[in-house]
Amino acid sequence: MKKVVVVGGGAAGMMAALSAANNKAETILIEKNEKLGKKVYITGKGRCNVTNDCDPETFFSNVVSNPKFLYSAYYGYDCTSVMSLIEQNGCPLKTERGGRVFPVSDHSSDIIRCFSDMLKKAGVDVRLNTKATDLLIKDNSCYGIKVKTNNKEDKICADSVILATGGLSYESTGSTGDGIRWANNYGHDIKECRPALVPFETKEEWVRDLQGLSLKNVSLDMYDEKKKIYSGFGEIMFTHFGITGPLVLSASSYYAFYIAKKPETGKGIKLNLDLKNALTEEQLDKRIIRDFEKYNNKQFKNSLSDLLPSSMIPVIVRLSGIDPEKAVNLITREERHGLVKILKGLELNISKTRDFNEAIITQGGISVKSINPSTMESKQIRNLYFCGEMMDVDALTGGFNLQIAWSSGHLAGESAANNDQ
What we know:
Elements: E1 3-7, H1 11-22, E2 26-30, H2 38-42, E3 51-52, H3 56-61, E4 63-65, H4 71-76, H5 79-88, E5 93-95, E6 100-103, H6 108-121, E7 125-127, E8 131-138, E9 141-149, E10 152-157, E11 160-163, H7 178-185, E12 190-196, E13 200-202, E14 214-224, E15 227-238, E16 242-244, H8 246-261, E17 269-274, H9 281-294, H10 313-320, H11 333-344, E18 346-353, E19 361-366, E20 384-386, E21 394-395, H12 400-417
Parallel strand pairs: 1-2, 1-11, 2-7, 11-20
Antiparallel strand pairs: 3-6, 4-21, 5-6, 8-9, 9-10, 12-19, 13-16, 13-18, 14-15, 14-17, 15-16, 17-18
């Protein structure tokens, strides 16, 4: 019987251990925290967006970095496989807007409990409060790991080792980049780790005046000069430092991906927000004319209450350059057109993203060129496998990143258990 050690008890690690055990390997799961799934627990705002119930084309279109690398893993264990596994083991699921899949209970703890029960049933030896400190390598082959438990150092030998130690986001959950450092020490190519699915800091100070304001049905375009990097539609929220919200988080992943290739351009990237996406410029102009007719005898600053949230009016008035005290009936056609341009293309200049403490995921990590996509085995070190967020693959929000963890973990566990080397 093969012996497999999995390091990391998050989504990818739990799936890898389960897969290895179900392929008749003696399996040990090492987790440095006091319980499994600490990051799974906080995903989806505590509800756990398990996966996305979509077709393969949709899945791959939502993978930002290296989607082709995931072909074998995903087609071998797709969203339907994950949903069937969880439901057949006592945790009913539901599908919400955009294909997002959650436990019916809306409690991520139910997903963790489901996997814990499956691991126990499969005979996996789960060792909590046990910290892996290094790999055991000889002749370019991995034969186990070094661990520390209650300050006591030990070694665990195995036929194969699977690393599922995560990236750098949410360090409090145990994602401290250990596995990425080990991989680097043993000759793997590492792509720079960057925060992704993360808020933006912007240069404009007026965003502070809008702190806490959420806007739905907004279009966002991101540009490097005239080159469009990203375009999306959804919800945004202003903060004291810049801008966040689902739409912004998606844009941030493309921002990180883009500046990784062209770091010299990172400081000149702009966002254009279309606050009135449902209207053309001509339609919006007619709408403003109607509002001006309605508030004919009012000052400009008091004429936009039907068009904008109250907290946004002073900011838009200031950006328009129109005298706030000016009577509506004295506003010129050019001034009105300028107002339309602002509402259809509110510009924000990105300073940077927030750091890993606020990032949902890590972009970068172990280069996919160092990993066999058909098995998840290292190309540098035999009998060493990788899965999950520590690899240079990432996706947008909506359950796609957890699906990457499930798919890559399942393939790594299956491959490690059946390795004949």
